Amino acid sequence: MPNKPVNKVVLAYSGGLDTSVILHWLRETYGCEIVTFTADLGQGEELEPVRAKAEALGVKEIYIDDLREEFVRDYVFPMFRANTTYEGKYLLGTSIARPLIAKRQMEIARETGADAVSHGATGKGNDQIRFELGYYYFKPSITVIAPWREWDLTSRTKLLAYAKERQIHVPADKEGEPPYSMDANLLHISYEGKQLEDPWKEPDFSMLRMCKTLEEAPDAAEYVEIEFAKGDAIAINGEKLSPANLLAKLNQLGGKHGVGVIDIVESRYAGMKSRGVYETPGGTLLLEAHRAMESITLDREAIFLKDELMPKYAKAVYQGYWWSPERKAMQAAIDATQEKVTGKVRLKLYKGNVMCVGRTSPFSLYSEAHVTFEDDAGAYNQRDAEGFIKLNALRLMLASDA
To answer: With 0-12 CB in 10 A as exposed, 13-18 as middle and 19+ as buried, what is 3?
Structure first.
């Protein structure tokens, strides 16, 4: 509990059961004024009803901000320049959204004169860390209220009872306890909890919203051409698009072919393992295409360096350190490699698979004259390899047991 009075709180508000209960609980517990903030990150649902819900609960200051372009341009794209995956598979769809939400929430706190912020993340997960590290970065003195770490509403049943007792509207589908906890934005949809808590049980893939199942995906392959400029995608099949519209189009293309669905068990920062199913169709296409673009435009050692940095970068994003000095330093190094990552990549999509089948760039380092199996017309003297090999073998010969 805060050790000083709280007058006004900015609540990260989705309009769902948890945050609706939190809104009422904050007012009941702290007697404070509430400002609600809802971020439109492309979660694929109409957000104006959230305004009506907040108004019905007596909220006077309501923020619903369209952050889709900023989200993709300033968070998703920089992360994809690093080819970022956490533990080899997770494309960090939830993780990368949190620093932007925290940033905007703190801006609203400043605009409204609020002395506290609050979120609906539980005390078991990663999001509480991601949000709060952002809050403290922007204002070290801010008061943070995390209801799940304070109240005694420790189950969904207790939340429903609390809501009914205080006549808080509960969406009909919540009454039967939905099988999955979901998080959605333009980059992904995640599913956790309930049936997925047993890592041996196969998921019911009928839950998917962005992607066709492999059985439903078309029986014919489709080709997609993605154009890059300085490491960022700028066009699909020759059509220039804004960052948010480009990712939305990739989602549609990848989802149609069942690309980007994974079932993983990940290591949470808090120490426990968590099983989830993720849909990231557009991100999966973007990752494949970006790596293919780099394969012909980046020097070998630059690629090696990026691949060494990537797990550290992924860990920083996953654990909530987007605003940290180390993430910023890695970003600067990564961005310095992207100056000539420009050109086009052609992908082939089929039944959950994505394969690069073509790449071209005005800055390509690929030289057919050097690698050809035909006559190279003197472009490469194969005898030079003998001295190169012997020099590199010297330390092995000195250490030899023979």
So the answer is: exposed
